[in-house]
Structures are given as C-alpha cells and as structure tokens.
Amino acid sequence: MATRDFNLARRFVTLATRMYGQTLFTDRNVVGVGCGKKVAHGGTVGQYGMTVFVARKIPPQFLPLSRVIPRKFFVGSFEIETDVVETGPFYALELTQRQRPAKGGISIGHVQVTAGTLGCLVRDNTEGTVNILSNNHVLANSNNAQIGDPIVQPGTFDGGQHPNDTIAQLKRFVTIVPEGQGNNRIDAAIAQPLEESLVTNEMNLGLAAPGPNHRVVGLLFAGSCNSMIMSPIQTVLQDLDVSFLNGDAVADGDIGLNVEKVGRTTEYTTSTIKTIDATVRVQYDFGTAVFVDQLVTAWMSDGGDSGSIVFEGGAGGDEDRCGCPFVSSLIDLLGLDLRQHEAAARRFRNSILRQTSGGLALVDAYYRVQPKLQEILPELSAREKATLRRFIEKFYVAFAHGIGPAGQEVVLFDQQTIKDADQVLTILKKRIGPEEFKRISPFTVFLKEFRGKKLREILKALDSKRVTQALERLIKSSS
Question: From CA 169, how far away is CA 156, in angstroms rounded?
Fold first, then answer.
C-alpha cells in the first residue's frame, strides 16, 4: 500500500503490527516498529508505511532468510510497504545545579539512581496534591523503589545527597513489565514535594510551562544516537491519574509535528516526529521491556534527559548523531560498524569516564589521537587492520555496556586484550613515529595500571591522585 492517505495507512499499519509484530520481535536486532513516511536518499518520499527500527542494518545477502524483513506485509488484499531504519539500541535516557525552587528540566532522581530530569508539576487527581512528574527509572529506580523513598535534587550523579538535597518522596509509579511478561504504555512516576515551596510550575531556560498556549505532546524516556522515544502525554496522565496545573495542555503527536524540550543533559533541543504508534524494545539494567503506541522523533536527547516533557513547538529537525568522522573511517576502512554502540559509548565517555580526574585525561587523549588514526588507517596491512579491528570493537562494546551496574563488573583488560593492545601500540609506533606516539602514552599507563581489574575498580582508581598525576605528567610531556 503505497499511499499518501495518512488515516488509511495508520489503520493498516496498526493491523499489520498486530499480525506480524510478535514475529518481528523474535529477532533481537529489531528494536521497534511504527507508522511513518518512507525515507530514501536522506529525505522522505511522501508515502506512508511500516517503519522497522533495527539496532544494526545488515545487507539481506548476509542474513538467513528467516531474518530478512519483507519489503511488504499483507493485510487482506492491502500491501504495507516497509522501511528499515538503523537506530542502534534504545537506552533508557545537563542542567545539573541545585535549584530552589526547582523548575522543570533540572537534574533530579531517586537516591539510588544517577540522575534524570524533572519533567513538570502535575496534580494528583486522587487527593489534589501537587507532584513532580518524571520517569519510573528516574524516580522509582526501575521498579526497585518503595513508596516514600527520598528524591534528591540534583540527582546523585550531580552531587545530590540525602537528606540535605532531598526535595520529595516517591508517591506513585507504573510498574515496568519485562519483555516476555507483557507490554508497557509508559515509563512514568510521580513524587510529592516535602514542601510546595521547594518546586515551581516553571520551566528552565525560559520555556513556557504546560498550558493551553504551550501544549505537551509526550514524556521522554528513551532514545539512541538518531532517535528519541516518548509516551503520549494523554496516556501518561491517564495511567498515573494526574492532570496539569494550568488546565488542558495536551497535544496529539502527529508525523511532521515539530517538538521541543529542556532536559538535564542536552538542555534545549528541538526535533520532528517521524513515527507514531510505535512498538519499541528498550534496554534497562534489569533487561529489556517492550512499549507500545509510542512516538519517535529524530535525535533530541542523551542520557540524563529521561523524564523531560516534550512540547509542541520549536524549529524541528532531523539530526543524526550516530556518525562521526572517526566512526565513519572505521566503517569504510576496517569494515567495523560501531554506530549501534557509539551513542552508549559516548554516554559512557562523557557521563561516567570524564567525571573522574584520570578519565578526563584519557578522554582528551582519545580525541587528540583520532585525526592521526584516521590518517594512517588506509596504510595498514590486512593483518594490522584485523588486530586493530578486534581491539577497537572490544573497547566500544565494553564502554557501551559500562553504563550499567553489570557492565562495571567486567574485567576490561584480560590477557587477550593486553596482547592485542601491545600489538596495536607496536603498529602505531611504527606508523606514526616516536613524537606522535607520545600523544597516546597515557594509554600505555592505563593498560599496565589496570591489567586484570574490573571496570568498577578502574573507575575508582582513576579518581586517585597518584594515577591522575601520572597521566597528567605524560600528557604534558607529550604536548
């Protein structure tokens, strides 16, 4: 069904999702489906169909027949065209200062959570109190909290501590059901302020509060390097039994609608809705969960923006942050496609590694050496490329998974990795010369210092004065 009739397309895509969605989701590479316009050559071609989101787009010739996504699905005599879009995995996603009264868009979180975003204030319809709206995984620690638990502002990752920074108590949340046990509609929770004077029904950065003249489309809770996922706000209000303070402020999310938000990490961003009625698989620390009837935009958030409310408005956009020159070089010259890990790896580098003194030095060294690596990649032999490919993939995957508690128990430098690292350093020294090689000397210390240690132990050591000073001396001497 190549059609420009939106209502007809939406109805048949919904039917096709019900008929074929469960089969599609048996493939772990499929992370979402929904109704959208087909994209070709970087732009939409105006025809509606079924968008299938995948963690990694693999050419059909390299897939078993059972995993090839059909070009069309059939609902009776109607044909539904498919459009396969690579997004990477969806991860449950820096206004970071202490703020009193706290406004929407600021850092907040359960005392055992790193940090998320205070969405806005809502009224509890059951007894009329004013409450903070955000995500379950921000306020209720992904189902692991108890009603009455402390909520701190800023979040603990941004320095918030109980009881000095406690601003509210967890009031109510909708349980997130793991994949295989059912589907979800929202990732949402409310917390009641200890005193109403601690919060205000305003937004940071001058954005207007929810109201008839600035309506809310959804509640942001997940995303990737080129997509953002939000639950329709009408569903959020209904399932939590809450309402906005300034009357009706609900807007429907339609394809092509420009939206805007303010959040802890990326602050003000704007984007455009690309897909509606989406069913998506989202990764949490406890595993994966499937959400239905979601809205998908192009990129507009990073980790820590979770809990932001998304308004209609803004200039819109179609930004894709999956690629960067270095990652593109790895794809072209090493045959190593890391785009599905890049968003999480960037989040790990910027939100975790750079928060340690030694980690900051390492990340800076990483960015300094990238241009030279791009320059020498075409000159490498097949054996050298194979060694570098194996080593880089190990690190990207480890860093991508280092954002969760389980990932921090991984031994990053096992014996094989050390062996590969020594070979990579030998290759680099030969190819870039002794002076340029000094620029990556911090990595040699990093490897020797943390041989056999878990990622959690490495992060702790990177805040030690001894390791930090050693790295800083090396970087200074190589400048």
Answer: 15
**What does the radius of gyration of the chain's CA atoms come to, in whole angstroms?**
23
Decide if 320 is inside a domain. no
- What angle is formed at CA 262 by the lines to CA 261 and CA 267, rounded to 5 degrees? 125
List CB contacts of 471: < 8 A, sequence separation 6 or more. Answer: 358, 361, 362, 442, 445, 446
Q: Cis omega before residue 101 (within 30°)?
A: yes
Query: Do residues 309 and 219 touch, judged by C-beta distance below 8 A?
Result: yes
Reported as type and span, the H/E element at residue 344 is helix 339-351
3-state secondary structure of 348: helix
Mean of pLDDT values over 222-235 = 92
| For residue 3, pLDDT beyond 50 | no
Instruction: For residue 319, tell me if it sits in a domain.
Output: no
Domain containing 354 equals: 325-478
Beta strand 120-124 pairing with 242-244? antiparallel
Distance CA 136, CA 131 (A): 14
CA-to-CA distance for 162 and 154, rounded, in angstroms?
Answer: 11
Residues 81, 105 share a domain: no
Give dist(CA 410, CA 256) in Å, integer: 42
The model's pTM is 0.63
Q: Does a cis peptide bond (omega within 30 degrees of 0) precede residue 442? A: no
Domain termination site, one of 35, 57, 86:
86
Q: How far is CA 13 from CA 83, 101, 433, in A?
A: 12, 45, 57
What is the torsional sign of CA 276, 277, 281, 282?
positive
Nearest to 362 by CA among 399, 391, 389: 399
Do 103 and 177 fall within a single domain? yes
Query: Are 109 and 191 found together in one domain?
Result: yes
The pLDDT tens digits of the residues spanning 37-66 come to 877 655 555 678 889 988 777 777 667 777
CA dist 390 and 327 (Å) reads 15
